[in-house]
Protein 1
Amino acid sequence: MIARLEPVPIGALTPADAERCAQLEGQLFDGDDPWPAAAFNRELASAHNHYVGARTDGMLVGYAGISRLGRKPPFEYEVHTIGVDPAYQGRGIGRQLLDELLHFADGGVVYLEVRTDNEAAISLYRSMGFTQVGLRRRYYRVSGADAYTMRRVGARPHKWVGAPPSGGAPPPGCGGAL
Ligand SMILES: CC(C)(COP(=O)(O)OP(=O)(O)OC[C@H]1O[C@@H](n2cnc3c(N)ncnc32)[C@H](O)[C@@H]1OP(=O)(O)O)[C@@H](O)C(=O)NCCC(=O)NCCS
């Protein structure tokens, strides 16, 4: 059994973290279009995005980002990425990061894509109230792996209109191509 550690401080992710994020992406999403530093810089430059990082002893050990969609409320949100340094996984950091993103979403509906074989991430998302609402074939361009679309309907009253997003160019979902 893995010992739980004290909560790790979560704070803003900044352009100074982009290289470290790209390094972690290379470890975490090897073979699935890991984002380069430039992709993180673009994400961080968007006013609609919210990125956070987990640090321990001054080192970035986790990162996560979410995007607010649309121009008018009620807003919907999309988790763009989340990752924890393999050496620090299983200690509650991923849950802390996701909790921070959901706090930003403030009860709005949140979507994400996750590889269908990513049991750890799917288990985390389910435990935070996400349910599977779609399947996207070959969503991950390099590996050709399929993705589930998962959705979390928050506490805020929201009227769902139409079907969940599918088809067309994939949005920059969790771990997917930008
Ligand atoms: C998914 C990820 C972010 C989880 O981060 P983490 O810090 O290890 O997760 P936590 O320790 O906070 O665990 C939270 C929950 O995730 C699930 N989980 C974590 N690791 C797991 C594993 N190896 N197997 C099954 N479930 C697991 C559990 O539900 C766990 O809750 P529990 O501890 O109460 O059982 C991490 O595994 C990761 O970086 N994976 C590679 C990148 C990735 O796949 N990102 C998601 C792309 S969509």
Protein 2
Amino acid sequence: MSEPYAIKMPQLSDTMTEGVIVSWEKNIGDKIERGDIVATVETDKAIMDVEVFREGYLSGPQQPVDSTVHVGHAIAYLVASAGEVQGADAAVPAETEGDAEVEAAPEAPKGGEPEGTVHHVKMPQLSDTMTEGVVVSWEKELGDKIERGTVVATVETDKAIMDVEVFREGYLSGPMAEVDSVVAVGGTMAFLVEKPEQVVREGFSLSGGAKAESKSEAPAAPATRPAAAAPVTTDSSVAPAARPHNKPATPYARQLAAQMRVNLNNVKGTGPSGEITAEDVRHARPVERPTEIAEQVPAHVMPEIQVPGHGRAMTAMEKAVSHSMTASLTLPTFHVTVNAKPGALIKAAKAKGVSVTVAIAKACALAMQKHPSMNWCYQPVDKLVERSNVDIGMAVSADGGGLVVPVLRNCESAELEELNEAWKGLVDRARKRRLAPEEYANPTFMVSNMGMLGVSYFDAIPTPGTAAILAISSAGAEGMPLTITADHRVVNGAEAAMYLNTLKGYIEQPEEWMGPTGPAIPEGDWDYDVVVIGGGPGGEDCARDLAEHGIKVAMINDAPFPGGECLWRGCIPSKAWRAAADRIRDRADDAHLGVEGTTKTKLDWAKLEQTRRSVLETRGDMALKTDKGVKIKVIQGFAWFESDHRVFVDTSANADEPHARQPAGDGSKGEHITFGAAVIATGAPPFVPPIEGADKGLASGGVLTSDTVWTLQAPPKRLGVIGGGAIGMEMAQIFQDFGAKVTLLEGRDRVLAEVEPEVAKQLTAVLNDEPNLDIHTSVKIKKITGKPGAMKLAWDDSEGKAHTLSCDYVIMATGKRPVLEPLRLAEAGVAVDGHVIKADARCRTSVPHIFGVGDVIGGYMLAHTAGQQGRVAAATLLGEDMKYDQDKDSGVIFTRPQAAFVGLSAEQAKAKGIDAVEVKVPMSIDAKAMINNETHGLIKIVADKASHRVIGVHFLADHADTLIGEAVMMVSGNMSLEQVAHAIHPHPTQTELFGELARRLLSRLRRSKKVKA
Ligand SMILES: Cc1cc2nc3c(=O)[nH]c(=O)nc-3n(C[C@H](O)[C@H](O)[C@H](O)COP(=O)(O)OP(=O)(O)OC[C@H]3O[C@@H](n4cnc5c(N)ncnc54)[C@H](O)[C@@H]3O)c2cc1C
């Protein structure tokens, strides 16, 4: 075997396109005999062995466990002798026997390699996304002797400038890539030759003197290239760290914490329900205080001034303060002040039974999560200590005079109640001067509250070891001055100002982090306790919950019936059309089961429309009766704010027609209504971007939106759809199923931005295979012209080639955007964030007694999201603790097959620091799918590797709208893979796939753990 032999990902089933490495059964360097099993891989169906029918030694580069590798790509190599064995991270060999599909290494330089070459210095892949690098500098000269581990050059990757190390010995030789030239990953940058006399000194460039523009020749980095290995591996001989007090931690996180000596109480968990993951531990700081203290060199020598009189010797504490204050003169400080209104915090602290001082400390620590540098400090010489534990020193008057500064530890992670208990003990001991050294040493931040003493303004002095101190003065008309004095070597003025503004937010709106401290409906003589503006899913669910709790609630809706967009122009009418399209589609598959005589269908549009409209009207009428029955005062009219406790309800445009969106009124008729609290649930109509001709088309009716498509008198024969979101995709396929030739144009490079990438990609391919549906992405729409029935759409494709589409109508499905101006939000002081109303997870706006729910606050614009947020707002108004959690939200796109999701994709989970694994099954292996000819798509489960909790389930499958119910319970109930695996699913149903997937993933995790151990 002259060249390494590539062991490739085998195709172990006919549907398999890729596999996951589950375990390596042999180690790098092991002698391999014919027929040996070297690895196990997970296919789309099962975990299977990879056998090798050659002899040799297992060599790198080797794909790591858990990586996904395409069929035919190399997973490791066999070499002829033990001496040729390469490590797991070695570069892909230049030529590989039996490896046609593995891309070839870049060509050798034109001039050929110098005589005596022992090594090619190649452009390394220094990040998983890097495909090429720019030579920044050569750190060694031609002819230099190179030892193993020498840095020979620096290169700029897509992320940073990094060193190129060489792990061979030899003499650096040309031809050498020029500084500033671009070299593809794996491309040769220079050579090492055996002897000094073999060094080639002329010819500074590779590739014939041109700059090394080897981009096009670059071997694509293997699609499966693993992310950089985690720096810490577990050592099972170390006992896991103790469970943290206030949150869960995964067993792996505890193991790592023990090894890395990380205090889990100080670590913020980013896993489900705040659980600490291994990734959190890796990012955390060790328990120890910094030990790298430079030798004490006085920054300057203070002159000792001769002072008359007979001084007494200072006490130890006075001396310590004196020295520390003198040392603080070395800090280059500045001051920044912001005023905050403390009323809400004082009230909330009282309601929770905690001291205001502790509540302020907690608010300071929370604000530091957004501005961490406030908690760092300067360490001589020229070092910064970046800390994640927030230990706040706060002065207490000691009995007999003097100030003592106990330190309240772990303010960032400990619960408010715990901190309050700790503080009580500290104050008690501080008063008696009985603090232990660890109770006053090393604060990371300081707070000085002279406001209690009636001081209207002051600033305080930070001590070395902290970057900043907060001075709290007493509240005046403008509020309470909060002054930060900060060390400019660590924090700049803008950071301090931003920190203060975040802190001000936490002080003025404590419910956001302390939870409700009681009902949020202000007391007063209002017409209604709560007015809900908008009668869609968000407003109606909110109003019903409030009414059921005896709250006097008015629901103001500008339509004659509730239901909003969902009932009248959205979910329900579109699913009526979808149901008819399903019937047509399913009939076409009848022949597959031998059912004859049913396949020729004909759509009676008038009948379908009659059914659709009657369902909407029946549902609208039922909803109105229920609303009135539960004692909601339903008011028809368009509301706008006159103050933060009063709206005007404009009834001038009230109409009886429920199907169309209501026209705008002129304010000539209506009533003024006062309220204690308000909930804005006004939705988001379709948004039409400024495309030439779009407005004219809207006016003529040739361009339709999701508001107006319902006026069609017959389904179009040729249709253009702009926008590949849920609405565009659903409409495109429905009209194709009704017989139209449909072209869908999407500006972005993919459709369905909210859907898991593989699901969206497969759906695009499936729909593109349909006879009369074309999807084009990365397009640019240039112009729309024509009249209804004869429209023209000019567009450029992804390569800039111009096209014109002739169609009967254009559906503009380019998103939804709230229309906020008519609400006159400024009159109530409600802040907006871009195009939507700003609201927190409890659906509170910037005004504590005004809430925003549903489409009007952005995020997922879905009916069930609006409904959930309506219930969250109602709960918060009632004083209950409830939050909307997007990470557990779900959605279904009603195409065939349906795309659906609940929870996080692996990509989203990883972005949140969760060590996620996924397992998937193609629908093509399922018997029921085969029977029904519904074999397109897949189901995927995403789980937290450490806790085994299911954090996401993703579908491209017919019947996903039903199957997702179980997945929603898995994610919302924090179910584990074990629970899903052990559940008894009935046969033959597609729910069995969930158990199958869970068991398969557990088996993979078990095996890879065993091998690692
Ligand atoms: C074609 C289409 C298909 C869809 N399919 C689905 C689906 O399958 N699943 C899904 O979950 N979602 C779907 N949606 C989205 C869903 O319709 C919305 O997300 C949902 O209706 C939002 O609810 P909402 O309560 O926030 O607002 P809306 O339902 O828009 O309700 C707001 C109500 O407030 C009224 N209003 C506005 N301003 C005022 C004012 N100042 N005073 C009084 N009244 C006012 C409006 O007229 C409206 O009646 C679809 C949308 C469309 C367009």
Protein 3
Amino acid sequence: MHRAHTAFSLALSPMAHKNFATWLLNSSSSQKLIKATAAAAVRTYNSAAAEPFANGSTATYVEEMYNAWLRDPSSVHTSWDAYFRSNTYVSPPNLAPVQANTLPLTAFNLGGAASAAPDSKTIDDHLAVQAIIRSYQIRGHNIAHLDPLEINTPELPGNSSTKSIYANFSFGEQDMERQFKLPSTTFIGGDEASLPLKEILNRLENVYCNKIGVEFMFINSLEQCNWIRKRFETPGVLNFSPEEKRLILARLTRATGFEAFLAKKYSSEKRFGLEGCEIMIPALKEIIDVSTELGVESVIMGMPHRGRLNTLANVCRKPLNQIFTQFAGLEAADDGSGDVKYHLGTYIERLNRVTNKNIRLAVVANPSHLEAVDPVVQGKTRAEQFYRGDQEGKKVMSILIHGDAAFCGQGVVYETMHLSDLPDYTTHGTIHVVANNQIGFTTDPRFSRSSPYCTDVARVVNAPIFHVNADDPEAVMHVCKVAAEWRATFHKDCVIDLVGYRRNGHNEIDEPMFTQPLMYQKIRKHKNCLDLYADKLIAEGTVTGEEVKSVAAKYENICEEAFALAKTETHVKYKDWLDSPWSGFFEGKDPLKVAPTGVKEETLIHIGNRFSSPPPNAAEFVIHKGLMRVLAARKTMVDEKIADWALGEAMAFGSLLKEGIHVRLSGQDVERGTFSHRHHVLHHQLVDKATYNSLQHMYPDQAPYSVSNSSLSEYAVLGFEHGYSMTNPNALVLWEAQFGDFSNTAQSIIDQFISSGQSKWVRQSGLVMLLPHGMEGMGPEHSSCRVERFLQMSSDDPDYFPPESDEFAIRQLHDINWIVANCTTPANYYHILRRQIALPFRKPLILCTPKSLLRHPEAKSPFSEMSEGSEFQRIIPDRGPAGENPSNVKKVVFCTGRVYYDLTKTRADKQLEKDIAIVRVEQVSPFPFDLVKEQANLYKNADLVWSQEEHKNQGCWSYVQPRFLTALNHSRDISQSDEQSTFSNTTTTTTTDNTNTNQDTDSETDSDQKSKPWLSRMFASNKSDSATTGGSAATATATGEFNAAKHFDLKNVRHDFNRPAGVAAAPGVRHAKTGRKISYAGRASSASTATGSKAQHIRELNALLNDAIST
Ligand SMILES: Cc1ncc(C[n+]2csc(CCOP(=O)(O)OP(=O)(O)O)c2C)c(N)n1
Ligand SMILES: [Mg+2]
């Protein structure tokens, strides 16, 4: 039986066997099961796992036998007795003998004399009944009626009658009325301890082979298995009251009505409707209702395209007019690129009418990349739990909704699942809902997965999986209730597999008959779930036909009213779709003011002393000798008031923690540091798991510090940390790659969330990515963080020299999508980390970090470069003889990162300190046009060279080259002659104020704007009239001061952090690239990032150093 391998042809054949018992009989593995009970095949616990039937759950069965045998050896069959006496059996460590599962001898003695020993047939028959019960529990789902279309029915061999199975168990018709004692591992009896065989079979058939298929017996916890059995087996669990049924009907009506309304009004628009799985809406509502009842106050959801609008409308209750406005193709009122409507997020706080409790619902915005949002949701959830002090996840939970094809196809699902139980990543249980329409775009399951179910990935974390036929609303509601209770009880993941179908094509414009003709013939004849359920409720007298119609009509009216309202809108507002508002963060802040990043020297000394000290109970806490030396070396540095890389980092973290900023560092092996330099967690050498983390003990009232070695995943962990960073701007969240290039397995998170999140979803993040980078002869894969890729995604315009003013740097930071830097000193590293928090807004920071520099004797900074008055240096000028006498300098070598130390050494070796200046570009993006210009002007007569250790087609060269040209040659404005390309396409806005201080640039008026070609206008300025009005005032006054109060109406900036119109307002000017040039000194282009041969690496390095350091 392989659900994925079933073919459509089966759908046309009648279901061969509806009864599990029949199937059981014919299944070869089942035969083994049957025989196993009597034959008592001798297996060890381990070998049991290899047997098809004897999986982990069968071990529980063996365990039961074992427990019974322990209490009374004669209570089990002689074969079990022999087996246990042989000492072959080893009790599994996590299954202690459980009283509830004992099987006393008297259990077999129904109807017989109380003291008489049971005969072996009685024992065999009882064991056979137990085996049957277990078989239903283990594999009943395989034959349950899950598919509303009845296409994917099991492939059943032969045609045997139900009777024969009893016969096979040595049961005949005559046994049907025989009473059998029920074991403690079933709840089908309710209050009854025994039942006739016929009733046992009927009840099992109903529980496990009807519209719900429960897959749970692989779970290695008897308690959890019993919990699930009870929820599904107890008689009457599926009985719903008339009120409950009406509520389901009303919700289903809305879900169905919403799609129908959109189909009517926007028939040619893509919306990725939910038709065929509309029950997902009542399902989500049920999960939220039950969870709210159980204490949850905030639900964070991640979901793909399918049914997203419906979820926003009917689960989150996002105003319908805002949703409809998205269909109108209106201009946006705010900045950014926006996104298609079925990717946008939302955040709503509202009263849950069923539970009468307040609830916060967020749907996280996501890209097309299916499942990429999963870890982001988890990180955001974790962070919300953290800030609320919700250590057990009782108040905040996540729900992840998946498509069937994506759930089994995308590796990030697995990677995310593996975070679910890790101490620093768990969200204490996620409910996964699969909108399983049994198709992925045009691909059938049998071609899209090799596993029986699309949900099999969840088995790796022992998550129970509840398959349910999406055409049975009551079964679905029951499953949802159990899922919510499961999460609240065990705080572990579980999966609801809603097996439905897709009524239309992949989207509403697609023709499904091209590829699934027979399936769609069937779908066309298939009544929708609402009609089926309404018919049922009418037939049983719960509602009348009139009531059904009136509920539908009422909802249609609501939609019509919202539709009319939407028509009056003139703009869409991206801010309405924000998923993570930071209330209060932007209010009253000067958006162009950075707080100082230097701190008092005494603070540095305090942090340094703590960081270099063993734990207070040092006498008892045995530290590794090597680490004692590390601590001693740190202490010496503190005494000498200098810092190496690790100390500089600790200064940044410690000082932020002191200021109440939570710091979280996560990634592979970050606690020690891949290069064994960090050592934030000291391990007691004699006591297991006893650790000490000095950064957690800097100050009594400090913010929490968390450092966590992560699972070996980049995609999920980076996504998780990105999500974490979205929740609260007052936290420094860092993810470190083991080596920089490993971040490429997280490329979708980088491309779709980190680089473009603000532009698409008006969402900011101050996440820091630490990427070890440097060509140090370690081979192609351990050398480069591929900084060129990050730079290529930087949004600053290579040809645009922003207006020069005191606010040059902050304006650039404000306008760019992220910051890319490569620091050469611990002090600059310290400042750039602190600046992340000092900024009045948040931008991701991509930081190339060193390897050999971690221990380089010159890569140290005095405390004076970190104390009050010091700040981050975007460029570090040459401070040696060349810098002191610039007019004598023949050549200026610009560089970034560790190659600086090689260059200075070569320069010293060649005694060219007076002739060659070396200037470090520490912040590569946004490009320090102003400082580069200043440096170039300083060395008027010198040749200019960019030197890098990366190959020419890699590293920073292709990014810096055009920007150097713009920085060097800014005298001739070409904007007037090249209007089409005058403006930066995202960051430049128009100003009508001519008082700009920038002498190099021309101001541009509205009338100038109007005379431009439309494309140029569109790219150039704010998109709405209102925004243009707001931005019409100059952002800088004649004195260069920025007056936030005057120019920003913060009341109108609902989500605060959006760039208020005008902040970036500055006329764009491009410059002719004539005059001074910059040349390149470095490796040639290459396909690989570095050579695998150390000798060749050194040869290349020497060549590039000689090339750069020559006059
Ligand atoms: C990572 C990724 N690969 C490919 C696609 C293109 N794509 C969009 S929807 C889709 C099918 C998804 O099927 P399923 O997960 O079952 O969801 P359904 O559309 O059936 O609801 C594909 C392949 C994508 N969006 N993301
Ligand atoms: Mg699908």
